[in-house]
Amino acid sequence: xxxxxxxxxxxxxxxxxxxxxxxxxxxxxxxxxxxxxxxxxxxxxxxxxxxxxxxxxxxxxxxxxxxxxxxxxxxxxxxxxxxxxxxxxxxxxxxxxxxxxxxxxxxxxxxxxxxxxxxxxxxxxxxxxxxxxxxxxxxxxxxxxxxxxxxxxxxxxxxxxxxxxxxxxxxxxxxxxxxxxxxxxxxxxxxxxxxxxxxxxxxxxxxxxxxxxxxxxxxxxxxxxxxxxxxxxxxxxxxxxxxxxxxxxx
Amino acid sequence: xxxxxxxxxxxxxxxxxxxxxxxxxxxxxxxxxxxxxxxxxxxxxxxxxxxxxxxxxxxxxxxxxxxxxxxxxxxxxxxxxxxxxxxxxxxxxxxxxxxxxxxxxxxxxxxxxxxxxxxxxxxxxxxxxxxxxxxxxxxxxxxxxxxxxxxxxxxxxxxxxxxxxxxxxxxxxxxxxxxxxxxxxxxxxxxxxxxxxxxxxxxxxxxxxxxxxxxxxxxxxxxxxxxxxxxxxxxxxxxxxxxxxxxxxxxxxxxxxxxxxxxxxxxxxxxxxxxxxxxxxxxxxxxxxxxxxxxxxxxxxxxxxxxxxxxxxxxxxxxxxxxxxxxxxxxxxxxxxxxxxxxxxxxxxxxxxxxxxxxxxxxxxxxxxxxxxxxxxxxxxxxxxxxxxxxxxxxxxxxxxxxxxxxxxxxxxxxxxxxxxxxxxxxxxxxxxxxxxxxxxxxxxxxxxxxxxxxxxxxxxxxxxxxxxxxxxxxxxx
Lengths: 250, 478
Known about the structure:
Radius of gyration of chain A: 18 Å
Number of strands of chain A: 12
Number of domains of chain A: 1
Number of strands of chain B: 23
Shape of chain B: globular
Strand content of chain A: 25-35%
Largest interface: A-B, 30 and 26 residues
CATH class of chain A: Alpha Beta
Number of helices of chain A: 8
Helix content of chain B: 10-25%
Strand order of the largest sheet of chain A: 6-9-10-3-11-12
Largest sheet of chain B: 11 strands, mixed
Number of domains of chain B: 1
Distance between the termini of chain B: 13 Å
Radius of gyration of chain B: 22 Å
CATH architecture of chain A: 3-Layer(aba) Sandwich
Number of helices of chain B: 10
Structural class of chain A: alpha/beta
Strand content of chain B: 25-35%
Distance between the termini of chain A: 30 Å
CATH topology of chain A: Rossmann fold
Order of helices and strands of chain A: EEEHEEHEEHHEHEHEEEHH
Largest sheet of chain A: 6 strands, mixed
Oligomer: heterodimer
C-alpha cells in the first residue's frame, strides 16, 4: 500500500527526515515511536502533504502512485487520513456541515453520488457511537472550544466517517486521560479491516496496550534506527530510548 | 508561514456586460441649470425643485470629505453626466410596456420582471441607471394599503407623504455627497407601510448602472407607520468599465411607534480590475430614525463589490425603548478599499443597539471599520454591544478599526469587543487534509467567520451572499 524510500525532508533550512525507509501493507498496524524531535510528526505531516515541509530526496509510492506529486486534498480523496496532533479550530462552521462536505468530496473523487443530509445524519448517528460522542458535538463549531480529549475524539469520528485506506494517527494519545484513551483506541480498532492500514505515531508505549501494532519502528535523528514486533515497544518502555540513540545522531 | 497563500486573479465579474439601449443622457457637467433640467424632466412640483436648489447651493460651499481611510484620485464633478435614462422608459402603465431589452437585462441578472416569472414572495423595483423601469406585485401590495413605487411616482401620486418625510432623516445639507444627491437625485424607491400592516412579502430594489460616464444618485425613502413591519432588500451590479463611476445614494428609513424596518443589502457593484482600474465609488449615506417608542431598525449589509466603499448605515434612536441593529460583512480583495461601519445615536430612554461587523481583507485590499456609539445625556438605561472582527487572507492586505464611543449618561452600558485573525495555513491544510480544495477551504472558513451576519439575511439572500463571498475571494489563495 505504502512504500517510503530514502525520504529526506526539510522545514525551512533544517533537515528533519534523513532517509526514511518504510513499507506498509494492507491489514497492518505500524507504530512509529521515538523521542521528541526525532521526526515522527514530520513524517506524518509529510505523508499528508503539509506545505511547511519540503521533500528534498526519496520517493513515496501509495497504491502504485507517486504520493508526493499529489496535492494534500487529492491524497485525502485517495484515502489518506491524518489524525492531527493539534486539531485546528474552524469557528462558525458546524462539525456536521464540515464532515458532510468532506465526506462528499471524497465520494465525488471515487465517482460516487453526494449523500443527502438525511442519510448522512443516519451515518453520523452510527459512527458517533464508535467514539461515544455526544450528538450535541455535531452542531458545535469544528473543534472550537473543545477540550483536548474532545478534539482527539473528534479526529477519530472523522476517521470513522471518512473510512480511509491509510490512517496516520499523530500523537493521538497525548493529552488523553485513560478513559478517553480507551475510547479512542476502541474506535480505531473497530475500524480496522483487511484492506486498510494504520500508522500510529506515539511517544509512549501506553497507547500500544490498546492498539496492538504488528510492527514497531523507532525513529531517531530522522532515520528509523530499529524495527521489530510489538515486543520492541515493551522493551522501549523498560529501557527508554537512549540505548538506541548512540550513533543515530548524524 | 503563508508561503502558499498568495493573491492570484479574481474570477471574471459575471455582471460586467453592457445593455445596448438608446438613452436620454444629459451632457456632462453640473450647474443650477442641470438641477432645474432634471427636476423639469421629472415634472416635479415647485417645493421639490426648491429643495434641490437649496441642496445644490449648500453643496457648492462644501468640501469633499477625505477623512475616510481610502485613497483615490481627485473626482471631477464636471466631467460626468447627472442624468441618464433609457429612452423607451416613460411613465409605465404596466410591465408589458417595458422595453424587452431591459427585461432581458434583468433576466440575465437573475431578476425576472415579467409577470409570469415573479420571484415568489418578493416584489421588485428595478432601477436602470437613473430611472425605475418597473415595479412588480404592486396590485397585491395595494390591497394591503402598502405603497411601493419609484420615488418619482411617489412624488406625483403621494406628494404629502414624500414632502413630509423626504430629508427628515438625512437633511439636504447633511454631508457633501448627501447634498449632491439631494440636488441631482434621479429616482429610487419609495415604500409606505400603513398603520398595523405587516408587509406580506419582501420588498426589493435592484439597482443597475449601465451608461458610461454617468453618476448614479438614487434616493430611497421607507416609512413604516405605527405598528407596521417591512423587510426590504437591495441588490446592485454594474458593467465592467476601465474608468471609475460615482454612486452617491441616500437611503432614509423612518420607523414610527412600534414599527420595525429590516433593511438588507447585497452590494456587488463592479470592483475594478485587479490593478484597481475602474470600479464603482460607492459613497452612500444610509440612515434610519426610530422616531416612535418601541420601534426597531435593523441594517444587514454584505459588501463584496465596489472599488471604494464609504458608508455607515446608522440609526437615530429617538423613541424610548427603540432598537438599532447593524450586521455587516465587508470583503475587499485585489485593490478594493472599504471604510464602513455604523453610527448609533441613543437619544431615548432604554434604547438598545447591537453592532456586529465582520471585515475580510484579501489581496491588497484595505478594510476599515468605523463606528460611533453616542449616548446622549437623557438616554437613561441605554445599552450598546459592539463586536468587530477582522480576518486577513494573505500578507499584503490591511484591516483597521476606528471605534468612537461617547457616553453622556452614566446609566449607559457600552461594550466593545474586537478581534483580528489571520486565515491560517493550518486551517486551510486541515480542511484540505479532509479532501476539500483550497478555495472550498477558504470559503468555508470565511463563511464560518461571517455566520452571525448571514443568519440575519432573508433566506434567498443568504445563499446569494455566501456564493458572492466565494466569488469575491476566489483566487485569493494559491
